[in-house]
TrEMBL record:
<protein>
    <submittedName>
        <fullName>Alpha-ketoacid dehydrogenase subunit beta</fullName>
    </submittedName>
</protein>
<dbReference type="Pfam" id="PF02780">
    <property type="entry name" value="Transketolase_C"/>
</dbReference>
<feature type="domain" description="Transketolase-like pyrimidine-binding">
    <location>
        <begin position="7"/>
        <end position="182"/>
    </location>
</feature>
<dbReference type="InterPro" id="IPR005475">
    <property type="entry name" value="Transketolase-like_Pyr-bd"/>
</dbReference>
<dbReference type="Pfam" id="PF02779">
    <property type="entry name" value="Transket_pyr"/>
</dbReference>
<dbReference type="InterPro" id="IPR033248">
    <property type="entry name" value="Transketolase_C"/>
</dbReference>
<dbReference type="GO" id="GO:0016491">
    <property type="term" value="F:oxidoreductase activity"/>
</dbReference>
<dbReference type="InterPro" id="IPR009014">
    <property type="entry name" value="Transketo_C/PFOR_II"/>
</dbReference>
<keyword id="KW-0786">Thiamine pyrophosphate</keyword>
<dbReference type="InterPro" id="IPR029061">
    <property type="entry name" value="THDP-binding"/>
</dbReference>
<dbReference type="GO" id="GO:0000287">
    <property type="term" value="F:magnesium ion binding"/>
</dbReference>
<keyword id="KW-0560">Oxidoreductase</keyword>
């Protein structure tokens, strides 16, 4: 019997975590304020009350300790889900992630698995202070041994977090914090239905004029731009990458061979980024199909600005449409 619920991204994550904990007693949640408070974004709200303090653990303010403890728990057969409260706090744990978490499965020739999920609220748009609006996903996508995923909608939030927890490899799970509680992004989900695969790229809007590839919070921007472009007679195909490492670029190549144009969209700075990789790979695989150079619409190569300036920093609908116009004028 189906159980269809209309959920925000935040509520979908909460229910996905709850379902994973119900199905497997080895699933633990740990992080700063995830228990009694339910997390600063309330994603883990109610879980400690229902599953107890032995399975939903409030930790000290020590990201290296959180990740290091998760590594030890994984060795002992548990499936820890760590929350990094804000993405800018992840760097004290970078050594544990890159030197231990990403390497142990390979180093032991598969004898030790690392089923650890690190949930990372990321991106801007919430008017926060320094270190609370970063986009560090490219740093982790560069590290072999890690799966890196970024969701953009409630369906992928619900099923994706469960699939990440079931993975025997470590997964960094980037969540667009400014969209957690957006009523406009509520989606109907059959929470008892057949799981939706979330670790591959997906065409979320078909088109023929140009391809726009995005992930995380930028997918909504791309879809808004596509809707606006339609009024001018332009048909934009929008692709949600979903998985950032390993990249699933087959749908991107197929789309670019059809449209001849690519706009790569991301909040992160442009230099040495995922949009750089997209541009390089599409040029390599689709060179003779391109009608214009690959163009990128990104954040600027500066530290994230104070809240009063973030609307000028974040890529918006107008910047995407301007890039489309530049591509068509080539």
């Amino acid at each position: 019997m189906s159980d269809i619920q209309k959920l925000t991204i935040g509520k979908a994550l909460n229910l996905g975590l709850r379902r994973a904990m119900e199905e497997d007693p080895k699933v633990l949640i740990m992080g700063e304020d995830v228990g009694k408070l339910g997390g600063v974004f309330r994603i883990t709200d109610g879980l400690q009350k229902d599953f107890g303090e032995q399975r939903v653990l409030d930790t000290p303010l020590a990201e290296s300790g959180i990740i290091g403890t998760a590594v030890g728990l994984a060795v002992r057969g548990f499936r820890p889900v760590c929350e990094i409260q804000f993405e800018g706090f992840i760097f004290p744990g970078f050594d544990q992630i890159s030197s231990q978490l990403a390497k142990l499965h390979y180093r032991t020739q598969g004898k030790i698995k690392m089923p650890v999920v690190i949930r990372v609220p990321f991106g801007g748009g919430i008017g926060a202070v320094e270190h609370h609006s970063e986009s560090p996903e490219s740093l982790f996508a560069h590290i072999p041994g890690l799966k890196v995923v970024s969701i953009s909608n409630a369906v992928d939030a619900y099923w994706g977090i469960q699939q990440a927890i079931k993975s025997d490899d470590p997964v960094l799970f980037f969540e667009p914090k400014r969209l957690y509680h957006s009523g406009a992004l509520r989606a109907e989900i059959d929470v008892t239905g057949t799981p939706v695969s979330c670790f591959s790229s997906q065409v979320v809007r078909e088109g023929t004029t140009a391809t726009v590839v995005a992930y995380g919070p930028s997918v909504k921007v791309a879809l808004d731009a596509a809707a606006a472009a339609e009024d001018d007679g332009k048909s934009l195909e929008v692709i949600d990458l979903r998985t950032l490492s390993p990249l699933d670029l087959g749908p991107v190549f197929e789309s670019v061979r059809k449209t001849g144009r690519l706009i790569a969209l991301s909040e992160a700075p442009s230099e040495s980024s995922l949009t750089s990789e997209l541009a390089a790979r599409v040029q390599q695989e689709c060179f003779y199909s391109l009608e214009a150079p690959v163009l990128r619409v990104t954040g600027f190569d500066t530290p994230y600005p104070p809240a009063k300036l973030e609307e000028h920093y974040l890529p918006d609908l107008d910047r995407v449409l301007h890039a489309v116009d530049r591509s068509l004028a080539w």
